[in-house]
Design goal:
67 residues, two-stranded antiparallel sheet, 2 strands, globular
């Protein structure tokens, strides 16, 4: 799994109720600068979310933003 860039400014769900139930908000607080986590950290975040220990990553990239 490659590193993961999470930028709230390019998220379709920014400012919605889903934003308050996103693991990014849990770890980083309100939307702010982009966060980059490496592959190992991304794997742990996904595992914690699947296990129900933290909210999942709800980030959904806007279609106009390149991947």
């Amino acid at each position: 799994m490659p590193s993961l860039l999470i930028d709230c400014d390019d998220c379709l769900l920014q400012g919605t109720e889903a934003c308050t139930d996103c693991v990014v908000s849990l770890f980083c607080g309100p939307p702010g600068p982009a966060q980059v986590i490496d592959a190992a950290e991304a794997q742990v975040v996904h595992m914690l979310g699947r296990g129900g220990l933290v909210p999942p990553i709800r980030h959904r990239r806007r279609p106009s933003v390149p991947a």
